[in-house]
Backbone:
């Protein structure tokens, strides 16, 4: 089962945060134990007994009070320096070069672009194990937030500006994340995943993504390709090698190779794809992909076509 | 002004009650204070209902009980309601009732402004709720981040109602703040120097300064948002050159002081309740009073800790982290001074005291998770996760609301003339304590497992479903607790034990008059020669002024 | 010691109100400066505003603060005739200022500089518009006072009313001086 807890880090950046989180929790736990312990002791020890007399009227002791002003201050200095040290590791300075990956957040999906290979895909980040990728993050509409807890710090996608950060995974696997800043209706299903694989497989994946899938010659899939152009899909989607180039919705060039549909709302597969096309709002109400009132024949043809896009 | 208070005989309490109209037209601070609290209680019912709807939706993964549209409206209204229509007005209402009594005054400095403030607040609240009927409630969260809150992304009128309603509430709040300051500075009874103010009054005074400095920031931001939406201006619309971040800065420059506005008077309540039931004076009055001022100042230097994930640069983040951490120091002083007040006391564990003691521990949990956010890299993981939801409920519910419950059990006898049932009160306390921790403790863990906040549903990942179910069960335990509380209020109002002037043998001036107090509060204000006038009266041989300079 | 104080509660109340208003304007000014600093295309202060003409109206507003001071002094010296005269002068000067602002707005709108055109329009009209609204409210208060003074109803203890309205008027005036310096003279770039 893929995980999503920042306490299972798989990169030096996330590792640094987890470590400082752990030590902070210990410090805070001790403080809590002191406060709760004193309170508990007081509850037991100083409960009024019947016939108890008036206690001594104690107005305070500046010396003690200064002590409990200074002690927390010292702990805070420690935590502050911990914070500084961790920030350098978990968010190293960016290099002024072309990013390895550009992420553009949309309501409610992620556009992914690899400038080096020219690959465009959506919602599922492939990355090579052990190599830090420089990522540029942008937003196409409102504020979103990129969160892959096991891999990197969390960072906002703010319209009108771009942010840079490092993304790295030191072991292969699938790691889950999500958009963390509330961005409207389908914020809940703006999920994200990273697929880390060794350098070879990653390169192979990139080459596959960069090749244009052969257009279907005949049969259902070929019908689907025609319907795709007729039923306005081309107004929003791009498929390399066809007339479809729009970027309002996810690039579908290699849709069949993706694990999920609708940014994590559904697992990718024959049935789910058909259900999605028949009525996206059934799984992602409010999504910007409209219900195009397709007949079931059209849906079948489209599914056949989209499944041919490997 | 103050000379007028002393020695005048005034009409008995009974003539002031003449049906509903007498309340609506009232400018008496006690009636207005009660109306504030009742109105806030009604809104609490609304906000609580919304919370329960959310918890039902979140009880199991992939749930379809609420649509995302509905859920987003509900959580927005829940947060907005609880903060602006419940906590703040409850605290203002308590202050409106108590401040004049505690300083030995007949009324607030501006009784009509007082009534005005209350009625604008009610109006603002109704305006906000009217949005449900007018095409949909706001659904951009309680901090309405731009550009999501702008016309292209929120085209229904919800956000307009939100902004207008909160503008009205804000005006009422500023009016109350001005009134508190002027009342406290000009209407104190002879002998009630600033340094002898009861801590609740002191904290309300400092709080009012915060209100006057912070709320206008919000009002300005709201006005700009409205101008954007209504007149197609461009303050916060990046597509036409505006800035999404300016809204965030403006909102949090208000929003962070606002969270202290919601807690300082609660600190004041605790500082009144704990000494009385420990039978000891407050430990280190000066430190508590001084640390409050420190918190007020610092609260303006921390706002960007809500924006660590924006990517504004390490130095920027660290500057605000330092301020946020510093606030732990004056807050810690208070916690330890309260503990020292109880230490060596003869403690009566009434329901009021139970809530006060629970407050100390619960608030500390919330405060400590707050400090963990101030460690920037931790915030880079935990911001906008359920860990934040846990933090804010620990400080707001475990903190402020627990303090308010303590205050209600403490002052109800003064307000109603009858005692609340301690037996029902104990049930209320334990249900609240257990339900609260069930609901929100597990949310820390959910955050640590990677669950983002403000999601109408979530995938079935390991532990998520189970922990959310526990949280939902906790929420319904809280419902039971609140029903017991409401029942207690109703029953005790009818047939509670008669309270008498001073059932707790407390020491501040409000206990020197009848319960409930007569129209102009005091037949005669006792001499004030120290911080505990009634202690001095009861124990002339051990009077405070004999010990302290 | 006693809690007896010499602070007048009305003055204190108005003072606090002014403080809250000052915070409000501060934010509007910051928004203007922030966008002015980074504004690129579209109208600008330099291209659309006429500091000379606005300067004349500014002088009227400043003068009205002086006449207001004189009004308060006449009230203190129990000189009802002078009081009415100075109050009327204040109203007149304030009204001239407001008239100037309306003229300026009409001029800008005719050049298609509006609140929805660009960020200069947005921030400029919001800032000066809210200031104008405050001037307008001040004028109503002043006119009321002037009416009362003419009717002979303003004397003795009512001096506090004149003083508090005066405080407010000086504040509104001060805000304008700041706006004029920043927006028209470009004191902060
Ligand atoms: C009553 C309201 C209240 C109070 C009092 C606080 C108190 C504090 N809060 Fe909290 N906060 C909120 C209400 C409140 N907060 C809300 C509503 C949000 C969410 C807003 C939203 O996004 O919707 C929020 C969010 C929030 C964030 C942003 C999280 C995020 O979204 O990324 C941060 C970050 O720094 C923070 C920090 C703090 C700190 C440092 C304190 C400190 O003041 C706490 C100080 C107290 C203690 C530390 C405990 C007692 C002290 C001791 C026992 C002494 C020893 C202690 C040490 C040495 C550590 N808070
Ligand atoms: C003081 C503030 C306060 C209080 C008391 C509460 C109380 C509760 N809150 Fe809330 N909450 C917030 C402030 C508060 N909250 C804020 C600011 C947010 C953020 C919003 C945002 O993201 O924009 C939030 C968000 C929030 C979320 C996260 C939503 C999300 O991110 O998707 C959740 C989820 O569980 C939640 C749950 C609850 C629950 C179960 C309660 C329960 O404790 C409620 C218990 C109350 C009842 C059950 C009511 C019963 C009352 C009656 C029956 C009437 C009785 C009548 C009288 C007493 C007269 N709250
Ligand atoms: Cu995108 Cu939340
Ligand atoms: Cu804060």
Residues:
């Amino acid at each position: 089962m893929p995980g999503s807890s920042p306490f299972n880090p798989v990169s030096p950046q996330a590792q640094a945060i987890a470590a400082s989180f752990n030590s902070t929790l210990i410090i805070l736990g001790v403080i809590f134990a002191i406060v709760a312990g004193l309170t508990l002791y007081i509850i037991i020890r100083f409960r009024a007994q019947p016939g108890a007399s008036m206690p001594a009227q104690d107005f305070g002791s500046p010396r003690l009070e200064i002590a409990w002003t200074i002690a927390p201050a010292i702990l805070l200095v420690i935590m502050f320096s911990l914070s500084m040290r961790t920030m350098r590791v978990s968010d190293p300075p960016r290099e002024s070069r072309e990013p390895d990956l550009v992420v553009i957040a949309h309501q409610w999906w992620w556009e992914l672009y690899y400038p080096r290979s020219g690959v465009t895909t959506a919602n599922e980040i492939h990355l090579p194990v052990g190599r830090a990728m420089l990522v540029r993050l942008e937003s196409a509409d409102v504020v979103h937030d990129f969160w892959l807890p096991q891999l990197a710090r969390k960072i906002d996608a703010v319209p009108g500006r771009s942010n840079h950060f490092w993304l790295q995974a030191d072991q292969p696997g699938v790691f889950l994340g999500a958009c963390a800043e509330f961005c409207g209706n389908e914020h809940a299903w703006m999920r994200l995943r990273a697929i880390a694989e060794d350098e070879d497989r990653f390169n192979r994946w990139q080459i596959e993504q960069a090749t244009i899938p052969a257009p279907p010659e005949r049969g259902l899939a070929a019908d689907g390709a025609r319907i795709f152009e007729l039923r306005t899909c081309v107004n929003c989607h791009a498929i390399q090698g066809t007339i479809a180039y729009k970027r309002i919705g996810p690039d579908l060039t290699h849709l069949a190779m993706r694990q999920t549909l609708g940014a994590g709302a559904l697992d990718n597969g024959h049935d789910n794809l058909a259900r999605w096309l028949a009525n996206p709002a059934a799984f992602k109400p409010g999504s910007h992909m409209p219900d195009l009132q397709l007949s079931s024949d059209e849906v079948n043809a489209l599914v056949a076509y989209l499944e041919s896009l490997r | 002004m103050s000379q007028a208070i002393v020695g005048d005989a005034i009409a008995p309490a009974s003539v002031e009650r003449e049906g509903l109209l007498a309340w609506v037209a009232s400018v008496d601070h006690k009636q207005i204070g009660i109306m504030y609290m009742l109105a806030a209680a009604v809104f609490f019912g609304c906000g609580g209902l919304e919370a329960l709807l959310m918890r039902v939706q979140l009880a199991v993964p992939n749930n379809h009980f609420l649509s995302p549209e509905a859920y987003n409206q509900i959580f927005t209204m829940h947060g907005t309601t609880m903060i602006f229509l419940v906590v703040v007005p409850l605290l203002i209402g308590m202050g409106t009732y108590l401040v004049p009594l505690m300083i030995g005054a007949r009324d607030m400095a501006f009784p009509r402004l007082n009534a005005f403030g209350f009625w604008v607040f009610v109006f603002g609240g109704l305006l906000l709720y009217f949005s449900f009927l007018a095409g949909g409630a706001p659904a951009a969260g309680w901090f309405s981040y731009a550009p999501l809150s702008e016309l292209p992304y929120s085209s229904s009128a919800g956000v307009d109602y939100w902004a207008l309603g909160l503008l009205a509430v804000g005006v009422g709040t500023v009016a109350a703040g001005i009134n508190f300051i002027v009342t406290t500075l000009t209407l104190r009874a002879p002998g009630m120097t600033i340094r002898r103010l009861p801590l609740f009054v002191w904290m309300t005074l400092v709080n009012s300064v915060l209100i006057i400095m912070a709320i206008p920031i919000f009002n300005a931001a709201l006005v700009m948002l409205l101008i954007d939406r209504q007149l197609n201006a461009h303050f916060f619309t990046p597509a036409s050159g505006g800035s999404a971040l300016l809204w965030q800065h403006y909102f949090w420059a208000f929003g962070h002081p606002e969270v202290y506005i919601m807690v300082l008077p609660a600190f004041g309540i605790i500082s009144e309740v704990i000494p009385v039931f420990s039978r000891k004076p407050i430990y280190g009055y000066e430190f508590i009073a001084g640390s409050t001022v420190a918190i007020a100042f610092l609260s303006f230097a921390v706002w960007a800790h809500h924006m660590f994930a924006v990517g504004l640069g390490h130095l920027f983040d660290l500057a605000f982290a330092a301020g946020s951490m510093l606030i732990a120091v004056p807050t810690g002083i208070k916690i330890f001074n309260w503990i020292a007040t109880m230490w060596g006391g003869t403690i009566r564990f009434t329901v009021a005291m139970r809530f006060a003691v629970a407050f100390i521990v619960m608030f500390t949990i919330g405060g400590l998770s707050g400090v963990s956010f101030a460690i920037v890299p931790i915030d880079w993981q935990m911001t906008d996760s359920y860990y934040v939801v846990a933090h804010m409920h620990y400080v707001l519910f475990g903190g402020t609301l627990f303090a308010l419950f303590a205050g209600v059990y403490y002052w109800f006898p003064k307000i109603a003339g009858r005692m609340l049932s301690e037996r029902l009160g104990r049930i209320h306390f334990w249900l609240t304590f257990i339900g609260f921790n069930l609901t929100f403790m597990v949310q820390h863990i959910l955050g640590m497992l990677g669950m983002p906040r403000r999601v109408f549903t979530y995938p079935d990942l390991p532990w998520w479903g189970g922990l959310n179910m526990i949280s939902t069960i906790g929420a319904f335990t809280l419902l039971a607790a609140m029903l017991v509380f409401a029942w207690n209020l109703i029953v005790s109002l009818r047939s509670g034990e008669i309270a008498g002037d001073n059932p707790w043998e407390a020491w501040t001036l409000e206990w020197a008059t009848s319960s409930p107090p007569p129209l102009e509060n005091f037949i005669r204000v006792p001499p004030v020669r120290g911080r505990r006038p009634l202690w001095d009266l009861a124990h002339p041989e051990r009077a405070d002024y004999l010990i302290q300079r | 010691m006693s809690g007896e104080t010499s602070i007048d509660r009305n003055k204190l109340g108005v003072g606090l109100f002014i403080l809250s208003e000052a915070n409000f304007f501060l934010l509007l000014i910051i928004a203007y400066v922030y966008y002015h600093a980074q504004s690129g295309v579209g109208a600008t202060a330099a291209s659309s505003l006429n500091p000379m003409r606005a300067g004349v109206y500014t002088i009227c507003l400043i003068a009205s603060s002086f006449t207001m001071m004189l009004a308060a002094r006449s009230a203190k010296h129990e000189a009802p005739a002078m009081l009415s005269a100075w109050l009327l002068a204040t109203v007149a000067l304030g009204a001239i200022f407001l008239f100037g602002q309306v003229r300026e707005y009409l001029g800008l709108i005719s050049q298609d500089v509006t609140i929805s055109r660009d960020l200069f329009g947005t921030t400029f009209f919001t800032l000066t518009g809210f200031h104008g609204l405050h001037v307008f409210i001040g004028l109503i208060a002043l006119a009321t006072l002037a009416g009362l003074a003419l009717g002979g109803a303003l004397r003795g203890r009512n001096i506090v009313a004149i003083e508090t309205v005066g405080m407010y008027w000086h504040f509104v005036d001060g805000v304008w001086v700041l706006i004029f310096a920043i927006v028209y003279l470009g004191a902060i770039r």
Notes: Helices of chain C lie at 9-38, 45-48, 51-76, 80-110, 119-150, 159-184. Chains C and A do not touch (no CB pair under 8 Å).
